[in-house]
Design brief:
The chain is an all-alpha fold and 73 residues long. It has a domain of 48 residues. The chain is built from 3 helices and no strands. The longest helix has 21 residues. It is globular. The relative contact order is 0.15.
Amino acid sequence: MAAYDKGTTEYRIAAAMMYIGSSISFNKPLKDFVIGHFMGFARGHFMDIEAIKANLQLMSELMDSNSVDSGPQ
């Protein structure tokens, strides 16, 4: 997580959501519950929800492209 020390608050929240979400992806109800709390926190602290979603989308796309790039050779 130290790699996410830079960037906007919305970026860092999205990075934390991605990190935790990937750790608990085996349990969708738990993942949805935790992500819901992150979003509630963000709304309660007047963060830009659309920026968080955009950062999550970008990170997801990067992870997908990295998994394709590092696939079997």
